[in-house]
TrEMBL record:
Alphabetical UniProt keywords: Coiled coil, GTP-binding, Nucleotide-binding
Domain Septin-type G: 147-420
Coiled-coil positions: 460-487
Pfam families attached to this UniProt entry: Septin
Domain of life assignment: Eukaryota
Residue span of region Disordered: 14-88
Homology family: Belongs to the TRAFAC class TrmE-Era-EngA-EngB-Septin-like GTPase superfamily. Septin GTPase family.
Spans through the membrane: none
Compositionally biased residues, Basic and acidic residues: 27-40
Bias (Pro residues): 54-77
Annotated protein name in UniProt: Septin-4
Length: 489
C-alpha cells in the first residue's frame, strides 16, 4: 500500500484519481487530530490540492477516460482504466480516509470529477461538512449524457402552411431537400403519407436523436373524412411497438419511437380552426401532446394575430380538446421562471414564422423573410412567437413532453391494452369452461370478478355463480337423501 506514492509516474496519467486523495496516514503514534490538521494545512497551501497538481482535471479527459492503450475492458470497467491490482491500494487509501474523517471535512473531501459542476465548490460551502450525496444529480447527468437523448416530433396541418420551413428553422437543418411537391391533380386522390426523418444533433457534448414525423397529404384530398386516421394509427403503432418491446425479453435496449409532441398548424387565412382541424385534434388529444400553431404569422397584422389566437383558444375549449398543458409552477419557483411560464401559457397558439434563408439588413444577417416593405426576422420576439416555441420545445419542456407521453398517453394505451387482453382471456376461458361444462366434466368456477368489466359479462358471471350454487345445494340435498335412505334401510 505504501509503495504507491502520489509521485508515481503512472499516476500522472490519471490526474484526478490520485490528485484528490490526501497522503496515506502511516503513523499510529500521531493522534488522528494532529494528522488531520497537518494534512489540512498542506492542502490549503496548495489551494486544496496537493502541490504541483492543478485544481481540477483537464476537461478534455475526465477521470473516466481510459488511456489510449488500455486493455479490453470488462462489461462494467472501473473508472480509471486501471487493473484491479492498481485500484485496490487506491480504494484502501480512500476507505482509510473515510473511516478517519467521515463525514469528510471540506479540504479532505475528494473532489468531484465534474469540475465546474462540483456541488461543493461554492465559497459559502467551504466550511461545511458533507457526506457527498449532493453529487447524485451529477451522476445521473453523466449517465444520461453518455446515453444520449431521443425526441420524436410530429407535424400536421394542410400542405403549404410552412411546416417543413418551420422545422428547418427550428433545428437549423435542411431536412426536406429531396421533397417532391405534388400537383393538384395528384393530390385529389392522395392519402396521408407518414414520413420519418431522423437526424443526430450534438451540442456541447449532448447528443440528441431527433425524429421528425411528417404527414404530407394531410387534409389535401377532396374527401378528407378521417384523414387523420393514418396519423392516429401511426401513433398507436409506436405505442404498440413499445408495449411489445417492454413485455419482451430484451428490455434494456428499447428504442423509444413514441411521438412526444404534435405541432398542429392552423391556417392564418380562415376564421379560426377548420372542421378538419377540430376533428383531428379531438381524435388525437388523448394520444399525443398537441401544441397548436398559428402558421405564417407574418401574413397577419398584430390585431389579427390576437383575435385569431383568441378564437382558436375558445374553440379548443368549446370542443373539449385537451392540448398540452404546461405544468403548474411550484410556489417556491423564482419569479422570473413563473413569469416565463405564464407568457408561454398566454401565447398559445404560438404564432410562428419560418424561413429557409438568411437575409441581410442593416449590416446584420439573420433567418428571415424579405418583402418590398421590409424584412421579418424569424427569431425576433416582436415579429413572432418562434423563439418562445423553440425555447419551450427544446430548452425548457422537452423532458416534460416526454414525461407526459410516458405517464399519461402511453399509460392510457397500456391500460386499454391490458384491459382488452384480459377481457379476451376471460372470454376465451369462459368459452372453454362452458364447453367442458356441456361435456359434464369438472369445472373450476368462479372466475375472478376483477377481470370482468362490462355489464354483460358481469351478468353472465353472476348467473353462472347462481347456477353453481344451486348445483351445490342440489348435490347436498341428494347426498342427505341418500344418507337418510341408507339409514332407514
Ligand atoms: P409545408 O407544405 O407545410 O411543408 O409548407 P412549406 O414549408 O413547403 O412552405 C410552403 C410555402 O410557404 C413556401 O413557399 C414557403 O417559403 C412559404 N412559407 C413558409 N413559412 C412561411 C411563413 O412563415 N410565412 C410566409 N409568408 N410564408 C412561409
Amino acid at each position: 500500500l505504501s509503495s504507491l506514492s502520489i509521485e508515481d509516474q503512472e499516476d500522472l496519467q490519471y490526474p484526478y484519481a490520485m490528485r484528490d486523495l490526501p497522503p496515506v496516514i502511516h503513523s499510529a503514534e500521531k493522534s488522528q487530530k494532529q494528522d488531520h490538521h497537518e494534512m489540512e494545512e498542506a492542502l490549503t497551501a496548495a489551494n486544496g490540492r496537493l502541490p504541483g497538481y492543478p485544481r481540477t482535471p483537464p476537461s478534455s479527459c475526465p477521470v473516466s477516460c481510459p488511456p489510449a492503450s488500455s486493455p479490453t475492458v470488462p462489461p462494467r470497467p472501473n473508472h480509471t482504466g486501471r487493473d484491479s491490482s492498481q485500484i485496490l491500494p487506491l480504494k484502501r487509501q480512500l476507505v482509510s480516509q473515510v473511516s478517519l474523517d467521515s463525514p469528510l471535512s471540506p479540504a479532505l473531501r475528494p473532489r468531484s470529477p465534474w469540475g465546474l459542476l462540483d456541488p461543493y465548490d461554492s465559497p459559502e460551502d467551504q466550511d461545511k461538512e458533507y457526506v457527498g450525496f449532493a453529487t447524485l444529480p451529477n451522476q445521473v447527468h453523466r449517465k444520461t449524457v453518455k446515453k444520449g437523448f431521443t425526441f420524436t416530433l410530429m407535424v400536421a396541418g394542410e400542405t403549404g402552411l410552412g411546416k417543413s420551413t418551420l422545422i428547418n428553422s427550428l433545428f437549423l437543418t435542411d431536412l426536406y431537400k429531396d421533397r417532391k411537391v405534388l400537383n393538384a391533380e395528384e393530390r385529389i386522390s392522395q392519402t396521408v403519407d407518414i414520413i420519418k426523418h431522423t437526424i443526430g444533433i450534438e451540442e456541447k457534448g449532448v447528443k440528441l436523436r431527433l425524429s421528425i414525423i411528417d404527414t404530407p397529404g394531410f387534409g389535401d384530398a377532396v374527401n378528407n373524412t378521417a384523414s387523420w386516421k393514418h396519423v392516429e394509427d401511426y401513433i398507436d403503432q409506436q405505442f404498440e411497438q413499445y408495449f411489445r418491446d417492454e413485455s419482451g425479453l430484451n428490455r434494456k435496449n428499447i428504442q423509444d419511437n413514441r411521438v412526444h409532441c404534435l405541432l398542429y398548424f392552423i391556417s392564418p387565412f380562415g376564421h379560426g380552426p377548420r372542421p378538419i382541424d377540430v376533428e383531428c385534434m379531438k381524435a388525437l388529444h388523448e394520444k399525443v401532446n398537441i401544441i397548436p400553431l398559428l402558421a405564417k404569422a407574418d401574413s397577419l397584422t398584430q390585431a389579427e394575430v390576437c383575435s385569431k389566437k383568441l378564437k382558436i383558444r375558445e374553440e379548443i375549449k368549446q370542443f373539449g380538446i385537451n392540448i398540452y398543458q404546461f405544468p403548474e409552477c411550484d410556489s417556491d419557483e423564482d419569479e422570473d421562471f413563473q413569469r416565463q411560464e405564464q407568457i408561454l401559457k398566454d401565447s398559445i397558439p404560438f404564432a410562428v414564422i419560418g424561413s429557409n434563408i438568411q437575409v441581410e439588413s442593416k449590416g446584420r444577417k439573420f433567418r428571415g423573410r424579405s418583402y418590398p416593405w421590409g424584412v421579418v426576422e424569424v427569431e425576433n420576439p416582436i415579429h413572432s412567437d418562434f423563439l418562445l416555441l423553440r425555447n419551450m420545445l427544446v430548452r425548457t419542456h422537452m423532458q416534460d413532453l416526454k414525461d407526459v407521453t410516458r405517464e399519461n398517453h402511453y399509460e392510457n394505451y397500456r391500460a386499454q391494452c391490458i384491459q382488452s387482453m384480459t377481457r379476451m382471456m376471460v372470454q376465451e376461458r369462459k368459452r372453454s369452461l362452458r364447453e367442458k361444462y356441456r361435456e359434464g366434466s369438472e369445472v373450476d368456477f368462479p372466475l375472478p370478478l376483477a377481470a370482468v368489466d362490462t355489464d354483460m359479462e358481469r351478468q353472465i358471471f353472476e348467473k353462472d355463480e347462481e347456477l353453481r350454487k344451486m348445483q351445490e345445494v342440489l348435490e347436498r340435498i341428494q347426498e342427505q337423501m341418500q344418507q337418510s335412505q341408507s339409514g332407514s334401510c
